[in-house]
Each structure stands twice: as structure tokens, then as C-alpha cells.
Amino acid sequence: MWYMVKSFYLLLSAYQIRCGYPTRILGNVLCKRYNILNYVLFKGYLLVPFLFELRTIMDWVWTNTTMTLMDWLKMEDIFNNIFQHKCARRMESEYPQPRGERKNPTVKYLMGGGALVVIIGILWFPLVLFALGNTVGKPNLPYDVTLSLRIGPYQPVYTMSAQNNSIYR
């Protein structure tokens, strides 16, 4: 049964290839050129949670195709990887680095240090914001104070306690 379904799927896919793909598909606007700007914008697009999946599913829904959703997602993922590799090869050809030569420490510290600061900021900013957001600038007044003075393991020599208003006298 599985063989028959897969054969029918391949037959429909071959028919789609023979008849041609729709010409009205614009594709991803960021993938028209292979340069560093498109690469950075494309990586930013991929970093937005579920935006890639949302666009891919909408493309699949409104495009006449014989592919399943999972196959369409695989095809888009392959296209994304190929685009990123093409951009990387283009950057390597435009900004060549001789083999076996060390990277400049200034570049390493600026790029690596900047990346570390950004990642640490992304991790720590929400924690600091929610931990200190409502408490900064507001006094944290005590409600109850208790003082006990004892010598060694014996009973306390002096005990004092105060509540709310009598704390400030």
C-alpha cells in the first residue's frame, strides 16, 4: 500500500514538473541577491519565532502543489541552507582570507566580544527586568522586628519586639 501511495505521489510530482511551476510565485524577497545585507536580514527573519513556519505554511496553502506539507517544509529548509551557503561563498570571494593566516585579534575580540555581550544581554535582561522592575525605588519597610540577646546556650538576657508603627520611634 505504501509503495502505491508513494508511486502516485511521485507521478503527480512529475506531472507538476512537466507542466511547469506557477510563474506568479514571488518567493522570498530577501533571497533575490547574495550579499551580506541580504544574509543578515535573512538570518534575522529566521530568528523571529515561527515566522519562517508561518510564511512556509501560507505559501503551501495558497500554492497549487502536489507536495505534502512536510515535503514543502523540507524543500524550504533546503532552499534556506543553499541560500545561506551561497551568501557565505560570495562573502568568501569578496573578502578573501589567506589560508593558514591567523585572524586579527582586534577583529576577534570585537566580533566575539560583541556576540558574547549580545547573548548575555539577551539572557540576563528579562531576568533583571522582572526581578527589579517593580521593586526599584520603593521602600521595603519592615512589619515586625524582634531582638534577642543571649549569652552562650542560656536563655535570652534581653528580648524586644516591635510591630509596624512603633518601629520608627
TrEMBL record:
Superkingdom in the source lineage: Eukaryota
Name recorded for this polypeptide: Piezo THU9 and anchor domain-containing protein
TM region positions: 36-54, 109-132
Any Pfam family hit: Piezo_THU9_anchor
Statement: the UniProt record of this protein carries the keyword Membrane: yes
Molecular function GO labels: mechanosensitive monoatomic ion channel activity
Domain Piezo THU9 and anchor: 1-131
Organism this protein belongs to: Timema douglasi (Walking stick)
Keyword Transmembrane helix: yes
GO (cellular component) term, any one: membrane
Key words, A-Z: Membrane, Transmembrane, Transmembrane helix
